[in-house]
Amino acid sequence: MLTMFPEAQPVEGLIGGLIIGVSSALMLLGAGRIAGISGLASRAIGLSRTGTPWPMAALFIGGLLLGAFAFQALSGPIEAHYAPSTGMVIAAGLLTGFGTRLGSGCTSGHGVCGMSRLSPRSLIATVTFIASGMATVAVVNALGGGWQ
Amino acid sequence: MTRNLIALLSGTLFGVGLALSGMMNPARVRGFLDILGNWDPTLVFVMGGAVVVMGIAWRIQKRMHTPLVCDQFSLPGTSLIDTKLIGGAVLFGIGWGLAGLCPGPAIASLAINQGNVILFVVAMVAGMGLFGLTERKS
Question: Which candidate in A60, A102, A127, A147 is best for mutational testing of the B interface (most B CBs within 10 A)?
Fold first, then answer.
């Protein structure tokens, strides 16, 4: 099906995506909250004073680590290749932290929860950060900063 | 109490979903953003699967008066499309493209302690803190 893209993992991606959807649906229908990770993380570490009650935010974020840890314990090492440049990683972290708070959301809040709600705000945000990410990768590659 | 359990279960499922989907591999996420190069469409399947389930969840939500274990829904009600929204998304997108990490996978990766992800998360927290400072001034 995806012979044009030999590296793609459509089956794992789809199943993982469905699990992420169930996770977000549980938060929405069970607790009446958006599973938006940038917001919950900011709340969990005490950087925002309003929003989801602190214990819920902290437990959700703790659960993220628990889920990844359990997955690796049961099915072996999770494959991951990181950016080679430390400076690039630190700059990326700063931009991600500042940008997700300024724009009120990231891939989970705007991308999954907002787009599925057909929120124009989230659709615009998602299209914008995907376009911005694509432009960034293109520029980095053109400047010879590719990973491989 | 029950709502805390729901948050823990939801976060755990989210972590499992990220790990299984390959989204904890920054090279794969970067591959999705590398539209002019060796494009990897996996993220489309992840996002598609999640959005379909949540699309159904939003339909159910419309028929519910209260969530299962809380007194009321606490959902964002704003529809404002302003420079903060766009500017924030542009900055986040640059960060996403540079490192192939967004907040969820970055935080989940702390559990498997690989590579330089800890630097990313420390910088991300600093970025969030910096935003808090600019908010307080304005």
Answer: A102
- The CA distances from residue B121 to A38, B9, B12, B13, B50, in Å, are 11, 23, 19, 21, 24
Q: What is the ipTM of this complex?
A: 0.96
Of A53, A80, A107, the one marking the end of a domain is A80
Same domain, A67 and A50: yes
The answer on A59 and A3 residing in a single domain is: yes
Question: What's the number of domains chain A is made of?
Answer: 2
CA trace torsion B72, B74, B79, B81 (10° rounding): 180
The amino acid that residue B76 corresponds to is P
A62 and A29, same structural domain? yes
Distance to chain B for A49, nearest Cα, Å: 10
Residue range(s) defining the domain that contains residue A18:
1-80
* A96: nearest CB among B109, B117, B127: B127
Task: Kindly tell me if the per-residue pLDDT of A1 is higher than 60.
Answer: no
Whether residue A68 is found in the same domain as residue A122: no
Tokens for B53? 């389930």
- pLDDT per residue over A90-116, tens digit each? 999 999 999 999 999 999 999 999 999
pLDDT of residue B138: 61
DSSP-derived secondary structure letter, A113: I
Determine the residue type at A80.
A
Q: List pLDDT tens digits, range B26-66.
A: 999 999 999 999 999 999 999 999 999 999 999 999 999 99
A65 in the same domain as A95: no
Task: State if pTM tops 0.90.
Answer: yes
Q: Are residues A100 and A70 in the same domain?
A: no
C-alpha to C-alpha distance for A1 and A90, rounded to whole angstroms:
38
Rg of chain B, C-alpha, whole Å? 18
